[in-house]
Amino acid sequence: MAGRAEQFRKDREVLNEKILSSGSKTFQRFFALDTAAYRAGALPVKTKELMGLAASMVLRCDDCISYHILRCAEEGLAKAEIMEAMEIGLVVGGSIVIPHLRRAYSLLEEVTAE
Amino acid sequence: MAGRAEQFRKDREVLNEKILSSGSKTFQRFFALDTAAYRAGALPVKTKELMGLAASMVLRCDDCISYHILRCAEEGLAKAEIMEAMEIGLVVGGSIVIPHLRRAYSLLEEVTAE
Amino acid sequence: MAGRAEQFRKDREVLNEKILSSGSKTFQRFFALDTAAYRAGALPVKTKELMGLAASMVLRCDDCISYHILRCAEEGLAKAEIMEAMEIGLVVGGSIVIPHLRRAYSLLEEVTAE
Amino acid sequence: MAGRAEQFRKDREVLNEKILSSGSKTFQRFFALDTAAYRAGALPVKTKELMGLAASMVLRCDDCISYHILRCAEEGLAKAEIMEAMEIGLVVGGSIVIPHLRRAYSLLEEVTAE
Amino acid sequence: MAGRAEQFRKDREVLNEKILSSGSKTFQRFFALDTAAYRAGALPVKTKELMGLAASMVLRCDDCISYHILRCAEEGLAKAEIMEAMEIGLVVGGSIVIPHLRRAYSLLEEVTAE
Amino acid sequence: MAGRAEQFRKDREVLNEKILSSGSKTFQRFFALDTAAYRAGALPVKTKELMGLAASMVLRCDDCISYHILRCAEEGLAKAEIMEAMEIGLVVGGSIVIPHLRRAYSLLEEVTAE
User: Which of A43, B72, D59, E112 would bridge E79 by S-S if both were Cys, CB 3.0 to 4.6 A apart?
Assistant: First the structure.
């Protein structure tokens, strides 16, 4: 996997581990709930990850956007499909989303170029 | 269609018409772009409407949530599928989303009871 | 209790019941987690409700603000204490909070006049 | 003045009065600071009200939007000028702004039809 | 031009180019619409850039803030005028804007010291 | 004090100084109001800093979160107490808060390990 994506994943894992071993039941339960919400149900995982990506774009959180781009790619979504989630994110969220779109699209190119 | 949904649609149409006849090219072009973003492309309309719903929930806009619930139902998405988009919206957006979830779920029941 | 507060509580309960009987495990678990986060722990309930109020004000959610004002009053917090949470909310969140502050302060007067 | 605008102003005044007589120095000082920020300085009042309107639109606060539309009209800004502030608000804030734009444009028509 | 401003512009251009050559019509049309919204109309470009700056501050996007500061300076707005847009942004958006104001004011000094 | 916390404080002070000597009365008055809001009143400073932390988490501002963690620690709040403010922040604000929680918890460990 590309360097930027790999680094992102490692940092994320280290810090998640800290939080999960902090002793807070609320942190643990929230993380479990978050994971569960993206599991296949009436909707497939792909659709859920695309919703996670669109939601992260309109809320303008770079880390969340990066995470969902990586997950979308892992689930086998094509570049064109992921781009359409970004299009929804841009139109719903407006031009304030553009700086995040720049970084997101750059990561998408890196991830789908592999 | 149920009364609340029908009223919502009518009010929306009247006000949209005003905006589109206001003479503002920016308003017209934005509305056209918004409509285009939800058309079938690499992703089907259903997936796009679900993304629109999830994004509207985390941004906590009742009118946008209502609109996308109606569109999801029109596209033939099942109640269980639409609920999973609401679940993503709730988990991503947090308890601040709950008042909107209350109204959204109530509309979903009304729309899917038809 | 005053009429506005009483109506608010009833509507909230009816809609919460709907959501909790919807069959969504995510909704149920989120609501349980939300309730648990405000229980006494290292911090007392009073402090947690004040934090909930300040957070609701900066996120500008009228229903959440109303709920936490009622909870603060139930926990025996004085009007002057609840007002200071509103002050933090106003300063952190800016003048965009003012319309919510207007409604919040009006409810606070109603609740503490009992 | 039109009915909707007049009602809005009255309600606003009554509630502001309550807040200013609440005894909170923070409320009083914040309100004074807010008023001062829109006074003529290096920039004229008109420009400041337009900035207030654009900022209110992207933050999606109906009361704030209404207030600044009324102030813009009072300052003698033309309908076309106020509409361009709304255009900036729509483009920066995205389609989530549209429900607020609908209500805003409707008020603008009412106010400028006088 | 100062180093920080120059670097910002270059990075922005490279990434914008990527997005515009991505093949997404939605990206292209949104960027065109965004550019068009800031052109002179009933309001002059200066006023539009000030509105863009105030809107960016309340939405707390550093890149957008930087961009509009540079554009304001290019259009010949004085430091005192740009500062008043920041004042509106601070008052509307609250103390949560302060970290962005720190970086914004620092860039403004750099840009207007030339 | 730990390096990261110390660096944060220094940078903050330098930039605050710039803003306060900028000549803007609005900046000065806002900063004074902000400081005043956290002084002991009906509520103790500890409670106010916890509210500031919870509000900063739901608004997802890293600098504000860091500042209030440092202030909470200075005021003698225990790690477990500060963690409960983070729990409220996570539950109210949702999973979009998680990247900020990661950085916040990491700073909390650094600060309370001293």
Answer: E112
Confidence check: pLDDT of B6 > 90: no
CA distance B31 to chain F (A): 28
Is the Cβ pair D95, A92 closer than 8 Å?
yes
- Quick one: E9 exposed, middle or buried, by C-beta within 10 A (0-12, 13-18, 19+)? middle
pLDDT for the residue F114: 60
Q: At CB < 8 Å, which residues of chain E contact D?
A: 33-34, 37-38, 41-43, 47-48, 50-52, 54-59, 64, 78, 80-81, 83-85, 87-89, 91-93
Tokens of F53: 């932390």
Kindly report the pTM of this predicted structure: 0.96
Q: Is pLDDT of B99 > 70?
A: yes
Q: Which residues of C3-33 are buried (b: 16+ CB within 10 A; e: fewer)?
A: eebeebeeebeebbeebeebebebbebbbeb
Q: For residue E54, give the amino acid letter.
A: A
Distance CA A82, CA A70 (A): 10
Residue D19 contacts residue F12 (beta carbons within 8 Å): no
pLDDT-flagged residues of chain C (< 50): none
Query: How far apart, in whole angstroms, are the C-alpha atoms of residue A64 and residue A69?
Result: 9
Tokens 């992102």 — which residue? A8
Token pair for residue A21? 């071993």
Which residues does A contribute to its contact with D (CB < 8 Å)?
58, 90-97
Residue pLDDT, tens place only, A8-29: 899 999 999 999 999 999 999 9
Please give the Cα distance from B84 to B74 (Å, whole number).
Answer: 17
Sign of CA dihedral F29, F32, F38, F39: negative
